[in-house]
UniProtKB/TrEMBL annotation:
Keywords: Repeat, Signal
Swiss-Prot/TrEMBL Cell wall-binding repeat ranges: 54-75, 76-96, 142-161
Record Pfam families: Choline_bind_1 (PF01473), Choline_bind_3 (PF19127)
Species for this entry: Clostridium botulinum
Entry-linked InterPro entries: Cell_wall/Cho-bd_repeat
Classification of source organism: Bacteria, Bacillati, Bacillota, Clostridia, Eubacteriales
Name of the molecule in the record: 1,4-beta-N-acetylmuramidase
């Protein structure tokens, strides 16, 4: 009787081992944490509890590259358009292409495709209101980089012109035009009073993590960079820098 039970136990173990051997990638993907794993020929990144990151950006501190994991948890390659309409290009290894050109298109320091169209439309005009300057192009308004009257300008997603700020490696002076003369005060790229859009295109760029709280008094956000640098926002305005 004992021998019969022992044989059954051994048989069960052999079946389990055979199942794992027939699908080793799946088994490894389940158990591995905080690392890249390959599943059916595709790469995903498992978090600290072994779940794949989905529909989110991921910054790999080891190789210092940005990646995007899609809704299936698979590492993005090629062109991708985000919810704000910005386009990014990811190389064959999944890393984000920055400060380069691909297929005739230029991508900036944040990886977003730069529209280098020069607008000489007679219907285009500068318009100023209580918030700032924006540039009307027919029935729409400029967003992103624009070359106007022999100068480069940057317009936020809201349409308003950026000024007195360093966007990645490019300093925009008080008139909004790109300039090589960068004041020392802009060396860090961020300062209190900036909007979230301004911070995203600054030297700080996109955070590794965002913690958000909404109360009846407003919306409060903590942006985490590399685990030890923090930016704090109240209703979309930067109030505190901690590093």
């Amino acid at each position: 009787m004992k021998r019969s039970k022992l044989i059954k136990v051994i048989a069960s173990l052999l079946i389990a081992i055979s199942a794992l051997a027939s699908n080793p990638i799946k088994a490894n993907a389940i158990t591995k944490t905080n690392q890249w794993v390959q599943v059916n020929g595709q790469w995903q990144y498992n978090d600290s509890i072994g779940n794949p990151i989905r529909d989110n950006w991921f910054y790999d501190r080891d190789n210092k590259n940005w990646y995007y994991l899609n809704s299936d948890g698979i590492r993005q390659t090629g062109w991708m358009k985000d919810k704000d309409g910005k386009e990014y290009y990811f190389k064959a290894d999944g890393s984000l292409l920055v400060n380069d050109k691909i297929n005739g298109y230029k991508v900036g320091a944040d990886g977003a495709k730069i529209e280098e169209n020069v607008y000489n439309n007679t219907s285009a005009e500068w318009i100023h209101d209580s918030t700032g300057w924006w540039y009307k192009e027919g029935n729409s308004y400029a967003k992103g980089w624009r070359y106007i009257d022999e100068n480069w300008y940057y317009f936020y997603s809201s349409g308003y012109m950026a000024h007195d700020i360093k966007i990645k490696d490019y300093y925009l002076n008080s008139s909004g035009a790109w300039s090589n003369d960068v004041p020392e005060s802009f060396s860090k790229g961020v300062s209190t009073g900036m909007t979230e859009d301004q911070v995203l295109v600054s030297n700080w760029g996109r955070p590794n993590e965002i913690n958000k709280t909404t109360t009846k008094y407003g919306t409060y956000e903590q942006w985490v960079y590399d685990g030890y640098n923090y930016l704090y926002f109240e209703n979309g305005i930067l109030t505190t820098i901690q590093n």
